[in-house]
Design goal:
24 strands, 12% helix, five-stranded mixed β-sheet, five-stranded antiparallel β-sheet, 342 residues, 3 helices
């Protein structure tokens, strides 16, 4: 009996010692941690941004946050909010895009153009003192510190104090007159037909005080088209159409009349043009760039408003088209690259 009791106690002790180890081996400890993105206490809102028309944000090299808003740019360093407007040197408002770079510079983009913040002050980068509109659609920092600006005129590269615009033949012809200081690289554009209208291509500009809504700068005219025959010139700024304020709807059914009011550099008075819309043969080649991406190997990607992508291996001569097969095309609003290069 004692031997049997001893044996039972021994087996029980062995099982008691073995069981925790077995359980531990089959169910390793897995700590449970909450998802920080779902913890409400980690989030806060800023009254300073409410109702300000926030369009973009970035972080500068010193850790400060920058915001593009209707009035210009807001900076927040974790303690103090500072506002910068066109009176402080910001080129145009609202500011739709902001970019902080590794060297501590902050760039801001508006429909008016590009400005830069460095050493405590804002200065215009482009178009400088010119009234030429330069609508900014996106800002991108390349691997080597190059800044790329997606614009309605093409893709503008800022590197070592030199500005180079990648654009089409037709846009380059206009800018050789309107912005001769730019270095130009010709890339394939998008063939568009003039259709029915006045044969006039425009780029949207800022509001001109005292002249209603937005303005539109003429950059190309169809030879012998209604606009050309009426006397419009490249560089004229359209401020009113048919007495209803400025609009981009200059085209319309053939046979209809249109009255265009414009400003011309060097002339104090408004100019008025009467035209009859008609079918305009031929076409033109714009390059409205929505987004730019430069990869580590120097390959460039331009996303176009027309629903196409331009891609090169790094040399402008190698640019080739990539077109989406969908009915509406590929609207490349934003692009990104992975560490693997895709």
């Amino acid at each position: 009996m004692n031997r049997l009791l001893f044996l039972c106690l021994a087996i029980s002790a062995i099982l008691h010692l073995a069981t925790p180890a077995a359980v531990h081996a089959s169910r390793p400890y897995a700590p449970q941690t909450p998802n920080p993105l779902t913890e409400q206490w980690r989030w806060r809102s800023y009254d300073e941004l409410k109702g300000r028309g926030l369009s973009a944000l970035t972080q500068s090299a010193d850790g400060a946050m920058w915001f593009g808003v209707d009035a210009g740019v807001l900076r927040y360093d974790g303690d103090t909010w500072t506002e910068f407007t066109p009176e402080d040197g910001v080129l145009g408002a609202p500011v739709l895009h902001v970019l902080g770079t590794a060297d501590g510079v902050v760039y801001a983009g508006s429909r008016r153009g590009i400005s830069r913040y460095r050493d405590g002050s804002w200065v215009p980068v482009h178009p400088g003192g010119s009234v030429l509109p330069w609508p900014v659609n996106g800002l991108h920092a390349g691997p080597d510190g190059t800044v790329w600006v997606a614009t309605d005129w093409g893709a503008l590269r800022l590197r070592d104090g030199v500005m180079t615009l990648y654009t089409s033949d037709d846009v380059a012809a206009a800018l050789s007159i309107l912005a001769p200081e730019l270095a130009l690289v010709i890339v394939p554009g998008v063939d568009l037909l003039w259709g029915e209208g006045i044969g006039t291509a425009v780029v949207r500009g800022d509001h001109i005080p005292g002249h209603g809504g937005s303005s539109w700068t003429v950059w190309r005219l169809s030879p012998d088209g209604p606009g050309d025959r009426a006397g419009l010139q490249v560089g004229d700024v359209i401020i009113d159409i048919d007495g209803e304020g400025s609009t981009d709807v200059v085209d319309g059914p053939a046979g209809t009349s249109v009255r265009v009011t414009a400003l011309r550099a060097g002339l104090p008075e408004e100019l008025h043009f009467e035209m009859i819309r008609r079918p305009v043969p031929g076409g033109y080649e714009p390059l409205h760039v929505w987004e730019v991406l430069e990869q580590e190997d120097g390959a460039l990607w331009f996303g176009l408003r027309s629903g196409q992508l331009l891609q090169s291996s790094g040399a402008a001569a190698d640019l080739t088209w990539y077109t989406h097969d969908g009915d509406g095309g590929l609207q490349a609003w934003r692009m990104a690259t992975t560490d693997a290069g895709s």
